[in-house]
Write a structure and sequence with these properties.
Layout lengths: L1 E2 L8 E4 L2 E11 L7 E8 L5 E7 L3 E4 L2 E12 L2 E6 L5 E4 L15 E7 L4 E6 L3 E9 L12 E6 L4 E5 L7 E5 L4 E6 L2
Antiparallel strand pairs: 1-6, 2-3, 2-6, 3-4, 4-5, 7-8, 7-10, 8-9, 10-11, 12-13, 12-15, 13-14, 15-16
């Protein structure tokens, strides 16, 4: 058990029958009344964000979590399959445990968050951005580049993203995995 004085960014706590990670916190000591800790929490299992205020000295149930690097192998009807790079043990995750799973590229590394008390995987975190090859897109019209116009493009994982008109098939593009937005073209 911990108290509100132990709250820090990244701390995982058991709260309302779910595991939440502290995203932001602020200790407040008003002129009148008791001190409190205002927090922004993100559910590790659902990704839902909430704000909650704890009274100072309140007991909280902290959860020990561990990040482990896994390599993405493949997807089938049962889910997504990963391999631990240290032990070569394989693990299967359901699609709802992986935000923006459409950007998973075979052979790429991904961090999986584990609850160390019962060795259960909680969620998977992709890298902030990933470089993917464009497999299909319509050619851009010459002279139509005066505005910041975007067109749909399909990347090698099968996901569809919006890219600028100058992007062609075979180009490598950097995609932000959290939003699915185009960042830049990558030189080969």
């Amino acid at each position: 058990m911990a108290t509100t004085s132990d709250i820090r960014n990244g701390l995982c706590i058991n709260f309302n029958n779910d595991i939440y990670q502290v995203v932001e916190f602020q200790h407040v000591k008003p002129g009148k009344g008791n001190a409190f800790v205002r927090t922004k929490l993100k559910s590790v299992t659902t990704g839902k964000n909430i704000e909650y205020t704890f009274p100072a000295g309140h007991k909280i149930d902290d959860v020990r979590v561990e990040r482990r690097v896994f390599q993405y192998l493949y997807k089938d009807d049962t889910g997504f399959h990963f391999m631990n790079k240290d032990t070569y043990a394989q693990l299967m995750l359901m699609p709802e445990m992986i935000p923006n799973a459409e950007f998973l590229k075979e052979g790429s590394d991904i961090e999986i968050l584990f609850d160390t008390a019962n060795e259960l995987p909680l969620t998977a975190e992709q890298p902030q951005s990933i470089v993917l090859k464009v497999t299909y897109t319509e050619p851009g019209v010459k002279g139509d580049t005066a505005t910041n116009t975007l067109k749909p493009a399909t990347v090698e994982t099968g996901a569809e993203v919006r890219v600028p008109l100058f992007i062609n098939e075979g180009d490598l593009v950097k995609i932000e995995t959290s939003t699915g937005s185009y960042q830049e073209r990558v030189k080969k």
